[in-house]
Amino acid sequence: MRILLAVASRHQGTWEIGEVMAGVLAGRGHVVDQRAPEDVPSLDGYDAVLLGSAVYVAHWLPAARHLADAFADELRARPVWIFSSGLATQPANSANSPLEIAALRERIGARGHRSFRGRLDRAALTFAERAIIAGGRAKEGDHRDMAAVATWATQIGEELDLLAATPATPARV
C-alpha cells in the first residue's frame, strides 16, 4: 500500500517519531511518503494516511489541523490513524484537549489515536515556548519511547496487510 505519513513538528521530535513509523511500515513492504502537512497538495494515490502532530498548549499544530479539515471527506474514504507527541514528562493525551481529539477522530474517521511522550530541549525553544513549558514543569531530555512507536507502527502495518489482502478493497490510483 502507498501510505502518506503527514507530521507536523516544530523542533523535529515528532518528525523523528514519524521516521520510526515510516521505517517500520517500509520494512513491511509499504511505500511511505513522509511529508509536512503544509506540503500535501492532495491525497490522490494514497491508500492510507497517518497524521500526527506535536502538541503545544494542549492543541495540535495548525498545519495538522488544517490538513484534517481540508481533506476530511477524503480521509474518511481510506484507513487513517492519528498520533500526538506532547510534553516530555507526560503523554500527549494529558496535554491534548480530549474533546478536540475525539472530534477530530470522528470528523476524519480515524481508526485510532496514540499519544507519545516528547523530547524537550529548552535551548531550541522560543522565549514564549519556554515560558509556557515552565508552567508545565516539563523535564529536559528525550522521553520518547521509540520501541512503543515501532510497536504501534507494526500493529498498523498488520492491519494494512489484512486490508491489502482483502479482495473487496478497491485499488487506488
Written account of the structure:
- With 173 residues, this protein is an alpha/beta fold.
- Helix content is 43%, strand content 23%.
- The strands form two sheets. Strands 1, 2, 3, 4, 5 and 6 form a six-stranded mixed beta sheet that branches. A two-stranded antiparallel ribbon has the order 7-8.
- The radius of gyration is 16 Å and the shape is globular.
- It starts with a strand and ends in an 8-residue tail after the last helix.
- Helix percent reads 40-55%
The major pleated sheet works out as:
6 strands, mixed
Number of strands: 8
Question: N-to-C terminal Cα separation, in Å?
Answer: 11 Å
Number of helices: 7
Give a quick summary of the entry.
This protein has 173 residues and is α/β, with parallel strands linked by helices. The chain contains 7 helices and 8 strands; from the N terminus they run βαβββααβααββαβα. Helix content is 43%, strand content 23%.
